[in-house]
Amino acid sequence: MMSKLVISWGEVLHRLSRIDKEGVKVYGIPKGGMILAGFLKNAENVQHPQDADIILDDIWDSGATMKQYMERYPNKQYWVCVDKRVEYQDVWIVFPWEAEHPGGEENIHQNIVRILQHIGENPSRPGLLGTPDRVVRMYEEIFRGYDPNKKPRIALFKNGDDGLVYDQMIVDEGTFYSHCEHHMVPFFGTYKFAYIPSATGNIIGLSKVARIVDYHAAKLQIQERLVHDIVEDLYEALCIDAEPPLGVALLMKAEHLCKTMRGVKKKGAMTASKLKGIFLEDATVRQEFLKISQ
Known about the structure:
Blueprint: E1 3-6, H1 9-16, E2 25-28, H2 32-37, E3 44-45, E4 54-60, H3 64-72, E5 77-83, E6 91-94, H4 96-99, H5 106-118, H6 131-142, E7 156-158, E8 170-180, E9 186-196, E10 202-204, H7 208-217, E11 220-221, H8 223-238, E12 247-256, H9 257-260, E13 269-277, H10 278-281, H11 283-292
Parallel strand pairs: 1-6, 2-3, 2-4, 4-5, 8-11
Antiparallel strand pairs: 7-10, 8-9, 9-12, 12-13
Helix pairs in contact: 5-6, 7-8
């Protein structure tokens, strides 16, 4: 998970001092910008962006909010207290009024409550009373791939250490579950990973391929990047203090619920693959792998 950084009251007020000037008119974007605007002592708070010199927000994250306001009010200044693009790209920013809120994670739970309300549900009915908490805990589990501390260690063995030098194709297969980054719904399916170790190279521990697949799948993904990330991670491991493998290959087939249950509503698997070394260069080896993957 992202590391957290609490921005102090002193830092917030210091940053605001740059715009807290007599004669400056400020519009605070709901709701973070409105909270910040409430601490201005000299600048004037206005109720509409059209009347403002500065449109104030608490944080620049994706840039989507700024884009909307700048398209509608192109002649206004857009000012943020924290610019994550520059300052804290991989940090979860906690403002002091959030850190002091009872419960710590209350804002996340309330966001889920708002989603339930948005879709027409009653978050207070008995069946949904524990849902926000369950969703938060579920997200922590299924998106554990963002936490580098949860990345599995890849156990490696030197080829030939047990008296056998193996120079044929080693294949591992299994299932995986991930989430589409465009709609945050699952895509899932099967994978086949293969590699041919060099005579003095590394052999991967039996369960480690599956653990690396699961770790990279536990993020918002697209299938093409998922295939790429897994192959590069395992290839890098195979090269640690050893001669590189002759080649590695991964093929993943998945059903995407963003296609099956919404939009075109068509069932069918998507296949993505990545090949390196002899799997890419030798048609016979490639065909052997593809035949195994059918």
